[in-house]
Specification:
The complex is a heterodimer of chains A (118) and B (117). Chain A is mainly beta and 118 residues long. In chain A, 0% of the residues lie in helices and 51% in strands. In chain A, strands 2, 5, 6, 10, 11 and 12 form a 6-stranded mixed β-sheet that branches. In chain A, strands 3-9-8-7 form a 4-stranded antiparallel β-sheet, with no helix packed on it. Chain A has a two-stranded antiparallel sheet with strand order 1-4. In chain A, a hairpin with a 4-residue loop joins strand 8 and strand 9. In chain B, strands 2, 4, 5, 6, 9, 10 and 11 form a 7-stranded mixed β-sheet that branches. In chain B, strands 1-3-8-7 form a 4-stranded antiparallel β-sheet, with no helix packed on it. Classes of the chains: A mainly beta (118), B mainly beta (117).
Chain lengths: 118, 117
């Protein structure tokens, strides 16, 4: 079974600074997808960014980027120019490739609570 | 994104009573999921469904059952609620209509906060 580990329960960053959230995972598959979700106090789950394992290029979405290290099974999220609205719980998630039966689900890490200091 | 509604939004129940949570979607998407969220555990999959009457267990299925008699509704039942089932429950749907592809994305409901006293 796949596992996702987030070793930082809490992080804080000064507004406008850069912060990196860590995620490692374990899988025997060669093709898969990785995601970062944001959960603000409203409890809404918001997709921040995703990465296909077969793509070597790291995904980027505006101020959010990832550092995907496939060999190390590491998938960290970098938030640049942190804003007060970035304060939330962040979850790393894994999904297997679609053509393997039983892969049709997301496996989540335990989350990292990010605080933005004004 | 398809509309997804969870009900109730909050519920307090007594130990030993059965409880049913409802997830309703509006656009006939095939895959639906129930997760629970607990501090220190993230979101853990309880059950999921890949079609009417087609369901499978997740990693924390003990004490829960599900039913899907219509495409739009996915019910989660706690057969005899225990305090360990106090949690926030999320329903999710895969945004692909007929087949599953993680790149289609997922839409999550707003969650149900269940307290078992």
């Amino acid at each position: 079974a796949q596992t996702v580990t987030q070793s930082q329960p809490e992080m804080s960053v000064q507004e406008a600074e850069t912060v990196t959230l860590s995620c490692t995972y374990d899988t025997s598959e060669s093709d898969y997808y990785l995601f970062w979700y944001k959960q603000p106090p409203s409890r809404q789950m918001i997709l921040v960014i995703r990465q296909e394992a077969y793509k070597q290029q790291n995904a980027t979405e505006n101020r959010f980027s990832v550092n995907f290290q496939k060999a190390a099974k590491s998938f960290s999220l970098k938030i640049s120019d942190s804003q007060l609205g970035d304060a939330a719980m962040y979850f790393c998630a894994y999904s297997g490739i679609w053509y393997n039966f039983g892969n049709e689900k997301l496996t989540f890490g335990t989350g990292t609570r990010l605080t933005i200091i004004p | 994104d398809a509309g997804i509604t969870q009900s109730p939004r909050h519920k307090v129940t007594e130990t030993g009573t059965p409880v049913t949570l409802r997830c309703h979607q509006t656009e006939n998407h095939r895959y639906m999921y129930w997760y629970r969220q607990d501090p220190g555990h993230g979101l853990r999959l309880i059950h999921y469904s890949y079609g009417v009457k087609d369901t499978d267990k997740g990693e924390v299925s003990d004490g829960y059952s599900v039913s899907r008699s219509k495409t739009e509704d996915f019910l989660l039942t706690l057969e005899s609620a225990t305090s360990s089932q106090t949690s926030v429950y999320f329903c999710a749907i895969s945004d692909g209509r007929d087949r599953w592809d993680p790149l289609d994305g997922y839409t999550f409901g707003s969650g149900t906060r269940l307290t078992v006293v």
